[in-house]
Amino acid sequence: MSARIRHRFTGRFALVGLSIGVVTGLGGQLSLGQFAVAGIGAAASFRVTSATGNYTLGLAAAGLAAARLAGRLYGDRVTGMLPPVMRAIEWRSGDIVVIDQTLLPHRLVRRTLRTTEEVAEAISTLRVRGAPLLGIVGAMGVAQAALRPRASRSATVLARAEQAGALLAATRPTAVNLSWAIERTLAVARAEATSLGPAALARRLLQEALAIHAEDERACEVMAAHALEFFSAGATVLTHCNTGFLVTGGRGTALGAIGYAHEQGLAVRVFACETRPLLQGARLTAWELGRLGIEHALIVDGAAAGLIARGEVSLVMTGADRIAANGDVANKVGTYAHALAARAAGIPFVIVAPTTTVDLKTRSGSGIEVEERAASEVLSFGGAAIAPKGTAARNPAFDVTPADLVTAIVTEQGVARAPYRRSLAAQVRRAVRA
Ligand code: MRU
Fold it and tell me: What pLDDT shows up at residue 152?
């Protein structure tokens, strides 16, 4: 059939694109950028003139496809372009693609990390942060160093992996997931360096990193289901820092559990503590809660104890960066104060964290290294100085909540309760066997 194809623009199909864009965009499937490209694609139409008649073909579908493709290819450069299912981290042909968390909530930008130095910089500056995500990015960083540039000897692959592992593990000391995931990946490299050729060895490390990612995604789902028993209809949950999809391979730890309870029809309300000095609660948790459609109010950290004492909170739920063998929990600074307030008011204080955050080698909280960050983070707010020049500041990024204040620790292996030395060890044993 001979056909003459003429391009022309018409408003007719813009309506189709607009509707598709609105529906998928509101459902969180498309970003604003993708929505715009879809609209433009839909606005263009072809008129096909053939022997059998004239047909006008809308390009809405092509517009959508182009938008998705553009999001994949240029997402790190184009603000607001993300694949339909939001992921905090992705492996793309040797590159590690992450959401730059320092720019949220104002700009949603993906960054491509191509070298170990770029990965280390992203971790140190908290572009990527949160215990489980640090583990995933650490393992991917080791695999990346092993894969690029291509090595001719397995010994070289192993040496590069070890070097990258040492550099990345030193970036943040408290979140045990980082060193755990790096060690797990390096253990594979050491075990298989003599039996595999260089290319196969590097690929094997990548496989391990991707397995760590996938396991964390699954763990999030299971933890959320286990945590459901702590929610009652109409619960008001107080949470600290940011523990959602941004910091895991899946839906999140504490915030993942809150989101799941909401999905199950429990009308959960949330107090999100702003989390000074870097405002992970204000910038990131409020943003995630908004996307999830969960009723929430942001509070300054200092307001938490008063609200708990007045009976306005039924549950305190947070994540963790490292859990010692006896159940002492290191988490974002400010968490300990919430646990004390919860105990005084007689409400539960619950931790949600995967077993990869449990560190049986550290006997108690006193053995956990607490990261001290730059004083400048405390002395300024939004880039502006807030204290007289020359003021000294301390900036411990975490604190340790003693086990006796912790009602329960929810992991993917179930709900651990005191005595934690026994219950946590049993959970870790089960996780290793799984
Ligand atoms: O310094 P950050 O922002 O990396 O600290 C993160 C936290 O303290 C989180 O609460 C913790 O990692 C649990 S995340 C699932």
Answer: 95
